[in-house]
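Obj.: predict assembly geometry.
Materials: sequence records (below).
Method: joint structure prediction, all chains together.
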Amino acid sequence: MTTPRPPHPPVRPGELPPSVAFLLSRLGYEVSRDMGRALHDAVDLELRQFGLLRLLADAGGRSQRALGETLRIPPNRMVALVDDLEGKGLVERRIHPDDRRAYAVSLTEAGSATLARAYQAAFAVEADTCGPLEPAERTRLLDLLGKLATARMERDDAVPGVHPGLVEPEPEPES
Amino acid sequence: MTTPRPPHPPVRPGELPPSVAFLLSRLGYEVSRDMGRALHDAVDLELRQFGLLRLLADAGGRSQRALGETLRIPPNRMVALVDDLEGKGLVERRIHPDDRRAYAVSLTEAGSATLARAYQAAFAVEADTCGPLEPAERTRLLDLLGKLATARMERDDAVPGVHPGLVEPEPEPES
DNA sequence: TATTGTTATACTCTATAACTATA
DNA sequence: TATAGTTATAGAGTATAACAATA
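Observations (raw structure tokens):
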């Protein structure tokens, strides 16, 4: 763990230190913000709601607890999350075939349609984000970011395949 | 603003859609988290506190309001922020030469020393983040991310040179 | 006895609006 | 009259702990 740069470079307004971590942190923040806004404007959804719909599209019919475990959302907050989406008619609680305590949460038809429109908004953000790049540069960036992401997935207990912003922070060690 | 991909790719756990926006969002979130933890462990500082120290190192002696404007932190919250750092002895409120209502906030010597250690922790995160990359890849990634960052700075009212996590979100249009 | 969904309570963070002392 | 700093109050979001129904 060598320090790749001197420890205390001057920081002038308008400049950022040439650090991958700083840039990722900043750009990730802004892109998340853009994504949240786009989803709000296009389909009146929050990032977390989008995340649950995405998960349901791929793995529906599971219990709130199972879904919440994947998304790192505790059970008590899953209640309101599912409540809201159910109120919008995008999700439904059906009886669980194996366990009468649990619900089988799944997408409705309206939910699928809304999810498709949400993806369109997300890809518009993608296009906007990559606007400053040549196609070849975008491909290269995708490759490099993918390398970092897969390395992380192999290393620690990262949440698989889930969009950040809807994933809860890991519990702080709180020394 | 053409959609570069079909609107609704399947999302399997363990996979992420090949999107720069998704990857930036996720990696930015995780790197910010890592950075926050490293700062907490090394110097018991939060990202926002680190941000203020960084700003003071470059532009100290300014009023809380001026500092808060740069960091997008409203005046009332600047109070607690400066209070905490002053309580740690890292920052001091001195009399403002031009305006007796305002304070001139500046780094103490201990603040400078702590900032240097904070930068060391930050660069350790940098090294850790770039671990999976070859040196040439890291350079290339730095270049591509820098391209996105500068394009954003020119475009909208992004905060100049300030680390995210310590910058407040822009006010939502709230349609 | 353990678990699913739910609720109740407290706590943290933030926003809004006042207040004081200076300008 | 406006501004810098501060404080007070209320609101949103979250965590912790309890609860009823079922396993």
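Conclusions so far: Confidence is low (pLDDT under 50) at residues 1-14, 160-175 of chain A.
To do: check interface contacts against the pulldown list.
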